[in-house]
Amino acid sequence: MDPRQYIDFLGTVEKLKCHTRHSWTSTGRHESVAEHSWRLTVMALLCADEYPDIDIQKVVKMCLIHDFGEALTGDIPSFYKTDADEAREDHAIERILSLLPQDTALEFAALFAEMEALETPEAKLFKALDNMEAVISHNEAPISTWIPLEYTENLVYGQENAEWSEWTRHLRDVLREDSLKKIEREGNKEG
Description:
Layout: H1 3-13, H2 15-18, E1 20-24, E2 30-32, H3 33-46, H4 56-65, H5 70-73, H6 83-97, H7 102-117, H8 121-140, H9 150-156, H10 159-162, H11 166-186
Antiparallel strand pairs: 1-2
């Protein structure tokens, strides 16, 4: 890749470090989109032994690129995202991929298509972990950062995507227990 093209692309995705998500860190500040993607990638690396037949390198790539569109659109929490927001993010992904050399753009476009179809074991693992990272973040954040719907959402978010494997089902169950303990320990600060 040409150094100028390389630098310009990095300048575009740098915005992932600037845009914050709905989630908060344990120290009480909004996390960036890049921080979410980084920890999601670590999660994929750490569970590789649970999935010896899955291409973890592909899952890692999915984790790293999945929110590229948010460099242009910013983050919209899944429970607020509309079809129009999805279309705007898809257009942003196309714009970002157009900044890359053709071979890389095609590879990443294929990964986005695979993630969207949610048919391969790699895409299913990516999606389950993506959901679980959000739940972990909420469990780590002060409960005062939770909005009212998160008292129930944190108990069920990502359940459907976790169902595809025994390990992700178990992870989801443990996270639900953690959410319930947090609510009990810190109190329900709803409304």
